[in-house]
Write a structure and sequence with these properties.
The protein is of the alpha+beta class and about 190 residues long. The protein is built from 6 helices and 9 strands; from the N terminus they run H-E-E-E-E-E-H-E-E-H-H-H-E-H-E.
Length: about 190
């Protein structure tokens, strides 16, 4: 059906065989749709990488369609830029999206918090993006110790406590009480 609608209309062509990690999930000319789904009763989800290496560049306007099966099953949609509310870091920084729950006021978007429009942010080199993310992280965690927040080019190693428990049978005596686990991140 969609193929029949788009035939002969180059401004509304849909790629029916996109890259598996393409962002957004569905591209229709200048418009794109990122699809999210959860079995939980929440409107929050991990989203794409901040780096956006699989970004479909022809897409200028992105919307999010979110299906929630937990609680009362429901589907909602919104503008992607307004739905991005947080950035989390594991092995790569990733956005988190959230649609307003019920009649609640929407949270300020991450880009409003950082003082930059999404379209401007996404075009920056990763080093420049990280300047915004670090400033945001320092603002929401003023007393926090975040291993990835360092922005010095001279620092080559970072340490973060892992909270790991070591099996006691491997350590005895002095080692048992003084062992401490650290992770070195190059």
């Amino acid at each position: 059906m969609l193929n029949a609608i788009t035939v002969g209309n180059g401004s509304f062509a849909i790629d029916f065989d996109p890259h598996p990690q393409a962002f957004p999930d569905i591209a229709m000319g200048e418009f794109g749709v990122e699809v999210k789904f959860t079995l939980n009763d929440t409107w929050r989800s991990v989203a794409n990488s901040v780096l956006e290496t699989q970004r479909i560049e022809t897409v200028k306007h992105i919307y999010i369609v979110f299906g929630k099966m937990g609680g009362t099953p429901e589907v909602r949609w919104g503008e992607y830029e307004q739905s991005v509310i947080y950035v989390r870091t594991s092995h790569v920084p990733r956005f988190e999206v959230e649609l307003p729950f019920g009649k609640a006021e929407p949270k300020r978007s991450l880009f409003e918090e950082m003082g930059v429009h999404y379209d401007d942010f996404r075009k920056l080199e990763m080093r420049e993006k990280m300047k915004y993310i670090r400033a945001y992280a320092r603002k929401i965690h003023p007393d926090g110790r975040l291993w990835w927040i360092e922005d010095s080019e001279t620092v080559r190693t970072h340490y973060a406590s892992t909270g790991a428990s070591l099996h006691q049978s491997h350590y005895s005596g002095e080692n048992e009480t003084s062992s401490r686990s650290r992770v070195a991140l190059p």
